[in-house]
Design brief:
alpha/beta; TIM Barrel; eight-stranded parallel beta sheet; 12 helices; 15 strands; about 15% strand; globular; hydrolase
Length: about 450
């Protein structure tokens, strides 16, 4: 009877886990197993958003209510992953004034972002530098090196100049080892952070083969992982196919479109835990019809899911997608079509055990920061149809996650039963053969 008692205790614990699963779902570090992100032993599928501005707004304590509002609104629609910047280099009110010199007020803004994400059950993807000039980017790093007498002539020297690479490595270390002034937890020890991103949309136009970026990613991935082995790491790629798979370049916006990146080769680098894809057919296929853009998007999404599943054997996140309201002929319906294409593909993959883990739309704004509108903004409660679509996707992915939790619990019950049966057989054998006790 004591074995049955142990079994029923296990059943009770599992039932309690089911009841509390919503509360505890985001505890712990996200990891990977095969093509799945994993959390608490089960595959992790999440609906998400981009909000690059969080640190900047939170650096002003009088504006922090806007950050809290964004997380609260996002959480109300079931959004549980946010991607944002952990960089702002040079210029007005930066995070990094100059190499190794930091703005404590801005860093405290990032502290607040992480603490609020934790409070509202949102995991964070933190990007560490920009490819573009906005917020400094790789150009600012090269300019800093030039001002110190380095012979650099191109922004792409960011990837090869030893001084510039040293600046970047130092920034990585400064961010990862930062101790949050609100929670007291070092960033590298905080499970609120889901992953680090090496760069937002890295490109190297001066060297289209992808070899320069491959060497840089390899070096920086190793450096970051030597400091923080607990968190996941991704590159920040847009998803363009390169020289390692010439037969797949037909799926790029233009078969001749090469920016020095390689979706397959760069995501196979040791230390890179999952792949990312960005999707902007309205930018990449200007002048084409809505139907052509939607057709491209469907193919773009599905080929990347297949390649993540079969070639990379890693999870893939659709880390940016959207449609600008600044184009002639824009309508909310047309934007919703883009959302539906991404959401349907992610759900179909997730529900069948595939590699797609999440879609993060660009970008979430909240009331009172109209100056950050870029045409892609989603301000919740302004477009009921989009809000409804976001909430529905969150609910569907949550059901998939719970399905995997239940399957895991069934496996636990089966294993417990096998142990109990084995113990019972052993006890019966001992009773039938007293000599075994001698």
């Amino acid at each position: 009877m004591k074995h049955w008692g142990v079994l029923w205790i296990l059943v009770l614990l599992i039932q309690t886990h089911e009841i509390l699963v919503k509360v505890s779902a985001l505890d712990g570090f996200v990891s990977t197993r095969g093509v799945h992100l994993m959390l608490n032993g089960s595959p992790f599928f999440a609906n998400g958003f981009n909000a690059y501005w969080l640190m900047y707004i939170a650096s002003d304590p009088s504006q922090r209510n806007k950050v809290s509002s964004a997380f609260q609104q996002a959480s109300s629609l079931g959004l549980t992953v946010a991607r944002t910047w952990a960089f702002s280099d040079g210029g007005y009110s930066p995070l990094q004034y100059s190499p190794g010199s930091y703005n404590e007020q801005m860093f405290q803004g990032l502290d607040f972002v992480i603490s609020e994400a934790r409070r509202f059950g949102v995991k964070l993807i933190l990007s560490l530098v920009n490819n573009y000039d906005d917020f400094g980017g790789k150009k600012q790093y090269v300019d800093w090196a030039r001002s110190q007498g380095q012979s650099v002539s191109s922004e792409d020297d960011f990837y090869t100049d030893p001084v510039v690479k040293g600046y970047y490595k130092n920034h990585v270390k400064a961010v990862l080892t930062r101790q949050n002034t609100i929670t007291g937890v070092s960033y590298k020890d905080d499970p609120t952070i889901m992953a680090w991103e090496l760069m937002n949309e890295p490109r190297c136009n001066s060297e289209p083969s992808g070899k320069t970026l491959e060497a840089w990613i390899t070096e920086m991935a190793s450096h970051l992982k030597s400091i923080d082995g607990a968190h996941l790491l991704e590159v920040g790629l847009e998803g363009f196919y390169g020289e390692s798979t010439p037969q797949k370049q037909q799926y790029n916006p233009n078969p001749k479109f090469q920016v020095g990146t390689d979706f397959i080769a760069h995501n196979q680098i040791p230390g890179i835990d999952f792949a990312t894809v960005h999707s902007y057919p309205d930018q990449w296929l200007k002048g084409s019809s809505d139907d052509q853009q939607l057709s491209f998007l469907n193919t773009w999404i599905n080929i990347h899911i297949q390649d993540a599943q079969n070639i990379l054997q890693k999870p893939v996140l659709f880390a940016e997608f959207g449609r600008t309201n600044k184009d002639p002929g824009y309508s909310t319906y047309k934007r919703d079509q883009i959302f539906n294409a991404v959401y349907s593909a992610v759900y179909s993959s997730a529900s069948s055990g595939g590699a797609a883990a999440s879609g993060l739309f660009w970008q979430l704004l909240t009331q009172g920061i109209d100056n950050l509108r870029d045409g892609y903004e989603i301000i919740l409660n302004e477009s009921p149809s989009t809000d409804s679509m976001i909430a529905e996707q969150s609910q569907k992915l949550n059901k998939v996650r719970k399905m995997y939790v239940r399957l895991r619990n069934v496996d636990q019950l089966k294993r417990a039963k096998e142990i109990r049966d084995g113990q019972q057989r052993g006890a019966n054998n001992s009773t039938e053969h007293p000599a075994n006790l001698v």
